[in-house]
Specification:
By secondary structure, this protein is α/β, with parallel strands linked by helices. It has two domains: 77 residues, Orthogonal Bundle (434 Repressor (Amino-terminal Domain)); 190 residues, Endonuclease, Chain A (2-Layer Sandwich), CATH 3.30.870. 50% of the residues lie in helices and 14% in strands. The protein contains twelve helices and six strands. It has a six-stranded mixed sheet, sandwiched between helices. A hairpin with a 2-residue loop joins strand 5 and strand 6. Helix 10 runs antiparallel to helix 12. It is elongated and about 75 Å long. The model has no long low-confidence stretch (mean pLDDT 91).
Length: 281
């Protein structure tokens, strides 16, 4: 299914457009707030995407800014409706952290993903059985079923509209028999199939590379589409995960780390050879 923009980004897009329209109309926030009989803080929150805007208020704002084109108004009303919907991952709150839910929100607007994991096959590339074995160390019963469902739904949303993905994994990730030999073998076959796709690059960092900058934990860099134009870092370490956006030092350092790890990885052809050997062993 085609990916849908997350409601929080629809809200951000709408807020940015409304601010642009106000400025083009030559109006200040206090002036508009007075005309609309609002507090200035309400308008500020709408423009900053801190709150949504009703379709009634939206139509009134657009009229105030001289925006009367029926097509433009209809498009923005649709964006406003989208911004007030529940995101697809809302039903998985019990098995996801807030930083991870923010990551899922960003993924709806992702043009490219660069990621590394020192121990596991990345979630986007996991089979259902492998995912269940991994998540089974954290959840059980209904929560385990929900966590697996969330992981598969996340993959499904990329099914017909996959971003470019460059995945680096330590050799430990393709040798560790998570779920048992047959589950791992099926996982490796799946990696071979995915790595044959034009949009997916998979490379293994061999044991012979010794110590490397990725040994501290897995991380993911998301390049967002042109409409948002930002880079997001999601990093996991023991008991901690967080996001950082923009050109901050932490994101720059993560890019440098990724490139350093990439220099140590096997070529795509050698990675394919290794995976085939492991499947046949």
């Amino acid at each position: 299914m085609p990916r849908q923009r997350d409601p929080r980004f629809s809200k951000r897009q709408l807020g940015r457009l409304l601010r642009t329209f106000r400025e083009q109309a030559g109006k200040t926030q206090p002036e508009v707030a007075t005309t609309m009989d609002w507090s200035v803080s309400k308008l500020i929150r709408i423009e900053k995407a801190a709150v949504g805007v009703s379709t009634t208020d939206l139509r009134a704002l657009l009229a105030e800014y001289g925006m009367h084109d029926p097509e433009v108004v209809a498009d923005l009303v649709e964006v406003a409706k989208e911004s007030r919907e529940q995101p697809w991952y809302a039903r998985y709150d019990a098995v996801t952290s807030e930083p991870f839910r923010r990551l899922l929100a960003y993924e709806g607007s992702t043009a490219a993903i660069h990621q590394f994991h020192p121990v596991l096959v990345p979630g986007h590339l996991q089979t259902a059985d492998y995912a269940r074995a991994v998540l089974g160390s954290h959840y059980s019963g209904v929560d385990l079923d929900l966590a697996v469902e969330c992981r598969l739904q996340r993959q499904y949303r990329f099914e017909s509209d996959r971003p470019k993905m460059v995945a680096l994994v330590d050799e430990a990730a393709v040798r560790r028999t998570i779920g048992g030999p047959e589950v791992l073998r099926a996982q490796l076959r799946h990696l071979l199939a995915r790595s044959a796709e034009d949009c997916t690059t998979l490379r293994v960092v061999p044991f012979t590379s010794g110590a490397h900058p990725g040994m501290g934990g897995g991380f993911m860099l998301l390049e967002l589409d042109d409409e948002i134009g930002d880079t997001v870092l999601f990093e996991e370490s023991v008991g901690k995960d967080y996001l950082a956006t923009g050109d901050s030092e932490v994101v720059t350092a993560a890019w440098e780390r990724f490139l350093a790890i990439e220099q140590l990885a096997l070529s795509e052809a050698d990675t394919t050879t290794l995976l085939r050997q492991l499947v046949e062993s």
